[in-house]
């Protein structure tokens, strides 16, 4: 755990960094790191769908996540008096996500639409083309969002296998 106190404003930022990004995906896993970013907000043993976001927003905070080639970061910004809510919610999300098959099916459609939208964005298309040219062998050549074929084939088993491989204490930082 890293902690840096700054008393400029009564706000706290809690982040959980997972040392896994799109460059860590194997064959058939294109987009799986990014997909986990979506699924870790889709319910846990103790919080239903929507409750993770609602709990943070209920105390005046915001919760979000992003995936890069090398990391996935889950973060919450809250009033500093509510920092424990951010820690509890993120810890629960990262450790106890359910990966409900119905939610997986719903989220596959969301991510497929995100991929289609990216294909209509000139900046995104140019970025993917640049990385594809610059990194012809390295995994950075592949899009972080993944490809439609792989994403459409995501299952509960595939998500759990990826999670068990990458979401371990030695690969997480708060």
The radius of gyration computed from the alpha-carbon positions, rounded to a whole number of angstroms, is: 17 Å
Q: What class, by secondary structure content?
A: alpha+beta
The averaged pLDDT comes out at: 96
Number of strands: 4
Poorly predicted ranges (pLDDT <50, ≥5 residues)?
none
End-to-end Cα distance, whole Å, is 5 Å
The outline comes out as globular
Describe this structure in words.
The protein is α+β, with helices and mostly antiparallel strands. It is built from seven helices and four strands. It has a four-stranded antiparallel beta sheet, with helices on one face. The termini are close together. The mean pLDDT is 96.
List the helices and strands and how they pair.
Blueprint: E1 11-18, H1 32-39, H2 51-58, E2 62-67, E3 72-79, H3 83-96, H4 101-119, H5 122-134, H6 148-152, H7 156-166, E4 172-173
Antiparallel strand pairs: 1-3, 1-4, 2-3
Gist?
The protein is α+β, with helices and mostly antiparallel strands.
List its traits:
174 residues, alpha+beta, four-stranded antiparallel sheet, 45% helix, 14% strand, globular
